[in-house]
Design brief:
about 15% helix; NETI; NETI protein; alpha+beta; three-stranded antiparallel β-sheet
Length: about 60
């Protein structure tokens, strides 16, 4: 018999380009999740041989409510 894949209770949500943090949080709640962790990662770009931060990526980890 094939095993049934268990539905995950965790999901990652990334704040999209042009999307505010509040809009992302509303999207998380609309899908029935609750944010438990926020992670920010810098986005770098090489300029004249040097790495410079140009943006940041915000990712929320959420649990099913």
């Amino acid at each position: 018999m094939a095993k049934k894949k268990k539905e995950s209770n965790k999901k990652r949500f990334e704040v999209g380009t042009g999307e505010t943090i509040d809009e992302c949080l509303d999207r998380i709640k609309a899908e029935g999740f609750m944010p438990v962790r926020r992670n920010e990662e810098p986005v770098f770009e090489e300029v004249d041989g040097e790495m410079k931060p140009v943006d940041r990526k915000i990712v929320f980890e959420a649990k099913k409510m």
